[in-house]
Specification:
Layout lengths: L1 H82 L15 E2 L6 E2 L35 E4 L15 E23 L11 E7 L6 E5 L9 E20 L4 E11 L1
Antiparallel strand pairs: 1-8, 2-4, 3-8, 4-7, 4-8, 5-6, 5-7
């Protein structure tokens, strides 16, 4: 009986020991599992923070890229604006290109030739296309005069109704006419006054005319050029309608430039 009680007691002790050992393993395993889960969660948080930082970096990079792109676009727009070279009417005297195709060519208009201001027989009959532009004002035949006097007979005025017309025959159709200019003497004395206007035209047949525009007139009293810049005008004939400013308008050279 005592042996049986002793055996039962030993079995109980062994059972408790086994139970305690198993319970400790389970707690250790649970603790290990909890720790692993905590580390995994921490890793996920760090990964999330890293992803957030990477996303933030991508956004900043995108903003920098957008700014750079905008700057590039602005630069392109500015370059495009600065490269614009649409020709405009204006002073062509300082930016002449190509050849003076009017030099040595025949012209009509300005008839009859007029006498000088003193009524002498010396005529103001300078050649308008000989290539010899005069830079000195004078009352002689180094200049050509358009004259209009409403009280004189029509036959004696070579600027009917105050407009003198000169037509130059370039002898063939000329392409890419880029400038026309007229040398004038605005003495503002003895009835010699600056022209009110000079309008240029071009034609293929000396009959149907295309208006090119008004020349920019010089200021001051010294000889100087009236001029117009053009974009690819073409034709065989060039016409100038010159509105006399006073009784006289003096000119002595007409030039037509083509590329």
């Amino acid at each position: 009986m005592k042996k049986l009680s002793l055996i039962l007691a030993l079995m109980l002790v062994l059972s408790c020991a086994l139970f305690a050992a198993c319970g400790g393993d389970e707690e250790s395993s649970a603790a290990d599992s909890s720790a692993a889960s905590s580390e995994a969660a921490s890793s996920d948080v760090e990964s999330s923070e890293a992803s957030s930082e990477a996303a933030s970096s991508d956004v900043e990079s995108s903003e920098v890229s957008d700014d750079s792109s905008a700057a590039d676009d602005s630069s392109v727009a500015d370059d495009s604006s600065s490269d614009e070279s649409d020709p405009v009417q204006g002073d062509a005297a300082t930016d002449l290109k190509g050849e003076n195709v009017a030099r040595g060519k025949n012209y009509t208009g300005g008839d009859p030739a007029v006498t000088d201001a003193n009524g002498s027989t010396s005529n103001y009959t300078a050649n308008l296309t000989d290539g010899a532009a005069n830079n000195v004002g004078a009352y002689d035949n180094t200049w050509f005069a358009l004259w209009y006097n409403p009280d004189a007979s029509v036959a004696s005025n070579n600027a009917p109704n105050g407009v003198g017309t000169i037509v130059i025959d370039l002898e063939k159709k000329v392409e890419d006419i880029n400038a026309i200019r007229v040398n004038l003497y605005n003495a503002n004395a003895s009835g010699i006054v600056a022209a009110k206007s000079i309008v240029a035209y071009v034609s293929d047949d000396n009959s149907t005319w295309t208006e090119l525009g008004a020349l920019v007139l010089p200021t001051g009293n010294d000889p100087d050029w009236a001029s117009i810049a053009l974009d690819g005008a073409a034709g065989q004939y060039v016409k100038l309608e010159i509105t006399v400013g006073g009784t006289w308008t003096f000119l002595n050279e007409i030039e037509v430039y083509a590329d």
